[in-house]
């Protein structure tokens, strides 16, 4: 397969990164560049590579021996596992530079003179000294009066004006190219990508995401980043995002805010959405009541097995929440009527669809109390080999359910997203590699 010495940045995203023996290290997610002064073309410092653990690391371009149409090959299988952190003077090509505005002074394109253009791609080339530099830029103007997309032009770097670190700090930068990279990505992976960007860029992307998508992403961020994003949104938008979040995650986030700000947001939320959040905030965060979701899978004893399975297929339910169906007397909204027991998903799968859930209820499984501490909850899951457990109050009403993912979030250190344990992977070992 032909080795290339020129490439467009956007086409590198997603390529496999391989060691010298063909072992897989990760995938390219972005490029780190240094924007230089004096008219010098930006230098490509390295790759932002996503490992199988979803951590993004920096791999220097000097380690790259070949860029092929389907992969990037390194001259070593040993790389630093330290999380990618940009230094002063550095920028992410996809995350920060694309969608920024420049002007072009190209004698062959006089119609573009004094026109604000948007960067849609960067062309990089390997020099005789083995350095990689940005030598050309693909730009596009605004849409025509008829709504047609403007033509894309590829111009030499020497004819580009206005791409500086200061220009990247200007407001109202577009996000189309970044959002296209996020399509199909899990919320946790988008959250990881956002953490690498400056606050200004994160906010522009957050403003462009719809409420549901932003809520999913916010739930995967560390608490400091959550509050930073939320407090920079308009109050109405922040309330909408909180409504779209899982109630337990929304309650955790609001606990991080000053009481007056939290109350102001709760008042802006729809009462039906804010009421379960308020109930969760009554409990201490490190108790079953503080951990639980108030919206588990709940049915009555007269529900058929077929209907219960259909409810369990709801894509909005996590696998842990879908593993256990709780049976109660009406009402089925928490706090429910008298709690009767639960039915495991496997039990539902073994029963004829027309049978009633009431005939296979497990009434002997112990329950959790809202006041149970973390140690009690942890021992409960270990004892009964569960990933979901009912939380029942003193009056025998089901008030929620704790799932193992929520438990793990609280058992891990608060900064676990920022300081992941170094994991040995195929071809990756900690090292002292630097730029």
TrEMBL record:
Q: Which GO terms describe its cellular component?
A: membrane
- An example Gene Ontology molecular-function term: magnesium ion transmembrane transporter activity
Q: Which SUPFAM superfamilies match?
A: CBS-domain pair, MgtE N-terminal domain-like, PRC-barrel domain
Residue stretches making up the CBS domain: 361-421
Pfam families according to UniProt: CBS, MgtE_N, SH3_actinomycetes
Alphabetically ordered keywords of this record: CBS domain
Q: Which residues form a coiled coil?
A: none
The entry's protein name is: Mg/Co/Ni transporter MgtE (Contains CBS domain)
Q: Which organism is it from?
A: Williamsia sterculiae
């Amino acid at each position: 397969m032909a080795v290339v010495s020129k490439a467009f940045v956007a086409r590198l995203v997603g390529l496999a990164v391989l060691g010298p023996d063909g072992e897989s290290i990760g995938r390219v997610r972005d490029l780190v560049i240094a924007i230089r002064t004096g008219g010098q073309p930006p230098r490509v410092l390295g790759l932002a590579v996503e490992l199988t653990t979803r951590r993004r690391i920096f791999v220097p371009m000097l380690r790259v021996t070949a860029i092929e149409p389907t992969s990037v090959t390194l001259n070593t299988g040993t790389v630093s596992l330290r999380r990618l952190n940009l230094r002063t003077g550095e920028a992410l090509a996809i995350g920060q530079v694309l969608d920024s505005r420049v002007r072009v002074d190209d004698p062959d394109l006089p119609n573009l003179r004094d026109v604000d253009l948007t960067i849609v791609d960067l062309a990089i080339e390997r020099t005789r000294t083995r350095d990689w530099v940005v030598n050309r830029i693909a730009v596009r103007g605004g849409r025509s009066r008829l709504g047609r997309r403007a033509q894309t032009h590829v111009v030499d770097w020497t004819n580009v004006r206005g791409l500086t670190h200061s220009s990247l700090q200007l407001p109202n930068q577009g996000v189309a190219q970044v959002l296209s990279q996020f399509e199909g990505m899990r919320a946790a992976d988008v959250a990881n990508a956002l953490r690498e960007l400056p606050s200004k860029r994160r906010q522009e992307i957050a403003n462009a995401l719809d409420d549901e998508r932003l809520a999913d992403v916010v739930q995967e961020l560390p608490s400091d980043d959550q509050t930073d994003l939320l407090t920079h949104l308009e109050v109405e938008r922040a309330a909408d995002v909180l409504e779209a979040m899982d109630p337990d995650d929304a309650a955790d986030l609001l606990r991080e805010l000053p009481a007056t700000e939290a109350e102001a947001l709760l008042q802006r939320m729809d009462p039906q959405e804010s009421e379960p959040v308020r109930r969760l905030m009554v409990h201490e965060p490190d108790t079953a009541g503080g951990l639980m979701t108030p919206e588990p899978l709940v049915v009555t004893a007269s529900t058929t097995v077929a209907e219960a399975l259909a409810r369990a297929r709801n894509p909005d339910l996590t696998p842990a929440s879908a593993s256990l169906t709780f049976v109660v007397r009406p009402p089925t909204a928490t706090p429910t009527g008298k709690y009767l027991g639960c039915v495991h998903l496997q039990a539902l799968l073994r029963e004829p669809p027309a049978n009633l859930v009431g005939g296979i209820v497990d009434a002997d499984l112990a329950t959790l109390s809202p006041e149970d501490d973390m140690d009690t909850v942890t021992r409960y899951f270990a004892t009964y080999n569960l990933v979901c457990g009912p939380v029942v109050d003193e009056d025998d009403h089901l008030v929620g359910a704790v799932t193992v993912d929520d438990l793990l979030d609280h058992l891990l250190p608060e900064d676990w997203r920022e300081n992941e344990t170094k994991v040995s992977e195929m071809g990756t070992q900690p090292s002292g590699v630097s730029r």
